[in-house]
Specification:
globular, Rossmann fold, four-stranded parallel beta sheet, 14 helices, 2 domains, single chain
Amino acid sequence: DPAQGSAVKIALPQDVQGEAYDYPVEFFDQRIHHIERRPPTSAQIERLAGLLKEAKRPFIICWGGVRYSEAGRALANFCKKFGIPFGETQVGKGTVFWDHPCNLSGIGVTGSLAANRLAKEADLVIGVGTRFGDFTTCSKWLFQNPSVKFVSINVAPFDAYKMNAESIIADAKLTLTAVSRALGAIAKQKGMQLTYHHHMGTGVQTSEEIDRLMEMTDPELVGLLYDTGHLVFSGEDHLAVLKKYVKRIKHVHLKNVRFEMLEKAKREKWSFLQAVRNGTFTVPGDGGLDFVPVFETLKSAGYTGWWVVEAE
């Protein structure tokens, strides 16, 4: 049971350790313990999507359950896709890169000013794998919006009902993926196209990660924003990605790359933010990328969406 299982330490007195006992041989057989992921129900996802749909100031708390579920990338993708800020507990820290655009660092007693201010004003607080303990909630004082509602995504029922939350007793990774699809369906009903921007420093920046995102989402509900600069910065073949997913591309960002600055950034181990500030990105025509194949591929595919020329 992932809600109850944990590491166990057995401490025996020295005299007991010295005793001999004829244990049954089957005690020493190799055992494989399978921990199954508990999926959310369709009703749970519908309720969660409904709360997110109505929320004006949602906020997410990233706790250790994100780590145990290996849901760091799923959380990073979810927050970036829907523009939802999140704060980390001490156990949840490090599951998502520190420079993720939605990561406001610690929350609660040992939290950052930014995270605690947004948590104070939030009208929907989603705890992902959190116990809503005193350090995280400032002894339940932190969340001061009189209309605030809580959701708890947790495999442990004991923790899922804290703060009188809407309890989603399920695996964090499966739940975040499922609610992302549900929100995509809501967007489609309203005539909007949900489009994900692959981006350096987030959970989806490489070709492999883009492949995983595309496999896990419905082509009718989730499109891809194609960005030449971020793919090249990440070391990917931007034309290969374009050709592979051209039918799912709904938005295009055009920016060039100064390759000499990119090499210097890698050599001197700059952060992504430092590399951008130092001029690694530039406008088409100023860097080393040839945009003619990009234009030809999109034209041949009948692309009619937005083209945004970026100068960063």
